[in-house]
Amino acid sequence: MFFDTHAHLDDEAFDIDRDELISSFADVGVTRVLNASSDMPSSYKTAELCKKYDFIYGAVGFHPEAADRMSEGDISKISELTKKKNIVAIGEIGLDYYWDSVPREVQQKAFREHCALAMELNLPIVVHDREAHRDCFDILNEFPGIRAVYHCFSGSAEYARELVKKGFYFSFGGAITFKNARHAPEVIKAVPREKIMLETDCPYMAPVPYRGKRNHPGYIPQIAAKISELWSVSPEEVGRITTKNALSFFGIKE
Ligand code: NI
């Protein structure tokens, strides 16, 4: 039993076969999916998917690359959406200094607003941190007690240990199966198992042997297989542990 804790099923890449594809995940043991939003329309689509499918959960909010499209009043719309069925988190939010397509101050302001909302509503957050480790960490420190999962974590094992001290979680996806995966295997071995979750970040980052193709939650077993190698346990055990972690982090009853 697997839980894909970071998918973008609202993406147009799934417009041609979304429902058919969604109905196939259970065949490979993927019984829960969390859809992460990237802007306002995407947050509404996430809420629709959650309404339609009992096993789909949602995070709502603005991705840092969409932070410049956030307008006055959007944060209250996001707040309203959290009352909808199966919406369990705020995300994906954070900072992206790799593309740097949106001014850093704009990203930081949006990130802070979402963190403040999460604290107010007592919801966990799904964090996107690309080449912005320091600023991301500093902003999260402004919100003591915030519950965060770093998705597609790319930092070092040393940095991961710092984040563990804050009680944060990590989710890993297709990139860990790539030959050139650097930090991730080390991090997966260095942090406590009860802090790790699985994700696809689909439609991007398909795991080997599907690298370059459209990714989807049905490829979670490939990611679990890689972690099972690193942990020296069965893929089923990886599924059991990571699902338990996800249910606990997102506050979902079994
Ligand atoms: Ni994502």
Describe this protein with a few key phrases:
alpha/beta, binds nickel (II) ion, 8-stranded parallel beta sheet, TIM Barrel, globular, 39% helix, 254 residues
Short characterization:
This protein has 254 residues and is an alpha/beta fold.
What does this structure look like?
It contains nine helices and eight strands. The chain has an eight-stranded parallel beta sheet. The mean pLDDT is 96. The protein starts with a strand and ends with a helix. The chain has helices at 18-22, 40-52, 74-81, 104-121, 133-141, 157-165, 183-190, 220-231, 235-250, and strands spanning 2-7, 30-36, 56-60, 87-96, 125-130, 148-151, 169-172, 196-198. The chain has one domain (2-250): TIM Barrel, CATH 3.20.20. The protein is globular and about 45 Å long. By secondary structure, it is an alpha/beta fold. Helix 3 links the parallel strand 3 (56-60) and strand 4 (87-96). The structure holds nickel (II) ion (NI). Nickel (II) ion binds at residues 6, 8, 36, 92, 201. The site of nickel (II) ion (NI) has 5 residues, from loops.
Q: Unreliable segments (pLDDT under 50, ≥5 consecutive)?
A: none
CATH topology: TIM Barrel
Cα-to-Cα separation, first versus last residue: 12 Å
Largest sheet: spatial strand order = 1-2-3-4-5-6-7-8
Mean model confidence by pLDDT: 96
- Beta-sheet strand percentage? 15-25%
